[in-house]
Amino acid sequence: MSTSAASAQRRYIAGRVLSYALLGIAVILVLFPIYWMVITSLKLPREIYRAPSLWPNTFTLANFEKLLADGSFILAIRNSLIVSTIVTLISVTISSFAAYSMVRFRYRFRGVIGRLILFAYLTPGSLLFIPLSIVMAQLRLGNSLVGLVLVYLTFSLPLSTWLLQGYFRGVPRELEEQGMIDGLSRFGALIRIVLPLSAPGIAAVAIFTFTGAWNELLFALVLITSDSQRTAPLALSYLITSDVLPWGPLMAGAVISSVPLMVLYFVAQRFMVAGMTEGGVKG
User: Fold this and answer.
1) Do residues 113 and 237 both lie within one domain?
2) pTM for this one?
C-alpha cells in the first residue's frame, strides 16, 4: 500500500472515530437527563438528598405511591389528555383548510393575512396571558378546560397554519387538477389528494401541537384555580410548597407525564415513515 493511500485510510478512520465520538457525546447529553429523572424517581428520600449517585442502593416505588395516593395526579393527567387531544384535533383541522386556502387561492390581502399569522405566532405568551385571562373571565370560562382549550388554540393555530403551508406547497398542483378533471370537487381534491400526500407534515404538526398543549404551564397557572381542573404540569408545580422540593414525587410525576408523549412520538414516527414511503405518481 502506498504512503498516500495509507495516509488517506488513516484520515478516514480518524474521521469515523471522531464522528462516532461526537455522536456518542450527543446521545449521552440527550439521554442523561431522562436517565437521571427515572433513577431519582426510584430512589429513597434519604438517597436523593445525599451525595449524588448514578445508581440507587435500593429501588423503591414509594414516590409513585405517594404521588398517586389521592388520585389527583391521575385526574390531572386525564385533564391534560383531554385538553391536548381537543386542541390538536381542532387546530389541525382548521389550520389545514386555512393553509390550503392561502397556498392555492388568490385573494386580496392574502400576504397580509400570512404575515399576521406569523406575527401572532411570534408574539410572546407572557404579553398575552393577562388580556386572555380577562377575556376568559368575562366569558365565564376562567376556571374550565373549555377556556384552556380556547386559549391554547390562540398559539397553536398560527403555528399549525404556518407549518402546513410549506407542506401543501410541496404537493404538485397538477395532481389536484387531474383529480378535478376526473370528477373531484375542490374539497374532494383536498381530502383525497392533498391531505394524504401531506400526511407526514400533518403528523409532525399534530406532534408539535399536542406537545405544546401538554407542556404548557403559564396559561394554566393563570386560568385554573380548582384542583379538579388542573393539568399535569400545573399539578407538578403545586407539589412544590414554599422552599421544599419533593424531588422523589416530582421525578415520579415527570416520568408518568412523559409516557403519553413517548407513545405519541413512537406511533407518529412510524406513521410519518409510512406516509413518506407510500404513494407515488405514475409517469
Assistant:
1) yes
2) 0.83
